[in-house]
Amino acid sequence: MKRSLQQRLSIGLSMAIVCTGLLAGLAAFFLSLNEAQEYQDASLQQIAALVPPQVWQNAYRYDQRHVDIDPDARIVVEPLCLSNCGKVDTPLQLPPQLSQGFHTVAVEDQDWRVFVRRLGPDKALAVAQSTDLRSDAAFASARLTLLPLLILIPLLVIFARIIVRRSLAPIHALAKAVDQQNADRPTPLSVEQVPEEVVPFIQSLNRLLERIRQLLDKERRFIADAAHELRTPLTALSLQVQNLERADSLEEGRKRLLPLQDGLERTRHLLDQLLGFARQQSVVSTIEPVDLTAVARQVVEDLYPLAELKKIDFGMDAEKPLRVQGSSAAFYSLLRNAVDNALRYSPENSEVTVRVRSEGNDVLLEVMDSGPGIPPDALERVFDPFYRLPGSAGDGSGLGLSIVRNIAEQMGGQITLRPRSDHAGLHFIYRQKAG
């Protein structure tokens, strides 16, 4: 189950804060504990330094009692009997041979931390403290360092959630702005209040919205042009039906029926191209290896009756099978529209040639006709839907080359139109990498 980015960030930051806080608390606790123990050692050492040596001597010579006992802190200060001291009444009875410095000594099943100060081979003073008492005091002091962290960790978790929510607020605002977009005319999204990391995504989304807007504009123009193109033949068909109704005889009715049949055929052809153009814009073809030589051969066979009707020398020039990546149906539609245009605009007793060849790493699909050609200033405009050259004699709809370009863009190929070099006519070239 997918979680929101805000939830993931909040949980991740909270866990990071808790883990970091626990590690910091443990580190602070042990550092404070070590610091307290060092402070206790320093206290023992300082007490030993403050007790004057005269007190040691008096303690040995006169009453042989320990110098001092602090019942609250349980710090014991007593001399060490080194030689000829008899029975000395000291509370701990520490071993006299302890060297200068710190020691941990067990006295009656209890450990004591002892600091020994020596002023010669026979003069020594011991300052001792119970390790249990030291540990209790050190732990009590170290535990106090955990209290701020125990209070800060929940506050940091709350602050992290607030910061994450506020940081992601612009994204929620963007989502709301996208929901409020006009489906017919999308507009670019603003990047002023957006986090820097999200700006590339918004820019990509704006480019997508711009392509959608252009596509919608094309569709609107297509619908308007299609309605305009259909109005003319339908009006002509309506007039021809009226003329057919006014026929006085069967023979005259038959004569008037011929233009009506021609009009219906032109309208059918226009509708076929309209449907093909719309279908080509919406369908995503399956990409697979395609033999363009076989596709060209099929197109020549299918359109040969149209060439024969106009007495056009229609043939094919192809090398061995040449393959590219694409869709067989798409390439068939591309070549059929190109050849159909060539046959329609070529005069009778002319020639149209389809050629498939390789050039380096490219495969070329060519159609050479004998028509009037295209002026240089109109070589790009002829790809617009429903555009026809002024004064063109053919009965085309102006959709053939639009369909061809859409297919070429989907297949990753390139179309070039140029005049024929040998005689009048148009040279159509489709180029694509071999694959």
UniProtKB/TrEMBL annotation:
Residues 225-435 form the Histidine kinase domain. It is a multi-pass membrane protein. It catalyses: ATP + protein L-histidine = ADP + protein N-phospho-L-histidine. This is histidine kinase. The lineage of its organism: Bacteria, Pseudomonadati, Pseudomonadota, Acidithiobacillia, Acidithiobacillales. It holds the Pfam family HisKA. Its EC number is 2.7.13.3. PROSITE patterns: HIS_KIN (PS50109). It is an enzyme of class 2 (transferase). The keyword Transmembrane helix applies. InterPro entries: HATPase_C_sf, HATPase_dom, His_kinase_dom, HisK_dim/P_dom, HisK_dim/P_sf, Sig_transdc_His_kin-like_C, TCS_sensor_his_kinase.
